[in-house]
Specification:
The protein is an alpha+beta fold. The protein has one domain. It is about 30% helix and about 25% strand.
């Protein structure tokens, strides 16, 4: 597995901040974010249950460019498969 570090939230201090990676073997995005918190989690549950093996996390909209870069990495690594 190659886990490609994409970026951390550029507006935080570098510790404990939202981060994005791309796993090119599993073909998955790996996202570290803030806990959803009970109110947001309750709103998410209105659409159905969340399995114990899954989590809801939040990342700021300012990381849109980071997510775009992760998509680009996914496209590039798919091309070499």
């Amino acid at each position: 597995m190659t886990l490609h570090f994409i970026a951390k939230d550029p507006e935080t201090n570098g510790d404990h901040c939202p981060t994005v990676w791309f796993d090119d073997e599993a073909r998955e995005f790996v996202i570290q974010g803030w806990d959803a918190g009970p109110e947001l989690l309750a709103r998410c549950l209105l659409n159905g249950p969340i399995p114990d093996t899954e989590s809801v996390v939040r990342i700021p909209a300012r990381m849109a460019e980071v997510l775009k870069e992760a998509l680009n990495v996914a496209d590039r690594t798919a091309a070499v498969r």
